[in-house]
Amino acid sequence: MRLFIAVSFSPAALDGICNIRDALSLKLERASYTRRDNMHLTLSFLGECGGNEMEKACTAMDALDCKPFSISMDHIGSFHRGDGDIIWLGAKRSDMLLSLQKDLAGNLAERGFVLEKGKFRPHVTLARRAFPSFHEKAGVNPIVQEVSSISLMLSKRVDGHMEYTPLHVKNFCRL
User: Fold this and answer.
1) What residue spans of 6-165 are helical by DSSP H?
2) Which residues partner with 89 through β-bridges?
3) Model confidence over 28-62: pLDDT tens digits?
C-alpha cells in the first residue's frame, strides 16, 4: 500500500483553496486539477509499505508531542516539469509546521523509514501537467488553517483517479 502523512483542511479552507485553483483555470491552456477531496499538505511521503511499516508509521505519529497551531497558505508557486508544471499553494513560513515535520521525520527514521532528501516545501498541489509554464510567484489572500491533527493516508487509484483514505489520525492536545 502507498502511504503518506499529511495535514488535512477544513471545509472553509478547502473552499478558499478551490477558489484559487478555479481562478488558475482561467490562466492555463491545459492542466489536470486536484480534486477538492484530495487536497492536503504532505508532511512525509512513505511510498509503498507493508502492514508492519504502517504500524511503525502510526507509532511514529503517536510519539509526537505537539499542540495545535495555525498555518497561512498565502502564495502560489510552481515546480517545472517536462510534461507541464505542478502549480501549488504554499504555506507562509511557520516554525511550528517546520518543527512538526522535522520531529515526524526523525520519528520515522528511528523506525527504519528512508525518507526523501531535500528541503521541506509545505504546499498544496492545485494542478499538474499545467501549460503554459507558470513562472509567477503570486501572493493570494491568506487561507488560515488550524493544524490540530495529522493523518496517515492511503493513496490508491480508483476508476482512473487517485483516492486518499485516512488510516490513522494523530490529534494534538491543547494545554
Assistant:
1) 11-24, 51-62, 95-110
2) 76, 124
3) 889 999 999 999 999 999 999 998 999 999 999 99
CA distance 155 to 139: 30
Residue type (1 letter), 35: R
List alpha helices for the chain, DSSP H: 11-24, 51-62, 95-110
Q: From its phi and psi, is residue 114 left (phi > 0), alpha (psi between -120 and 50) or beta?
A: beta
AA identity, residue 7: V
pTM: 0.92
Strand ranges inside the chain, DSSP E: 2-7, 30-33, 41-48, 69-79, 85-91, 123-131, 138-147, 149-158, 161-171
**3-state DSSP call for residue 171?**
strand
Residue 96: all three cell numbers together: 511550528
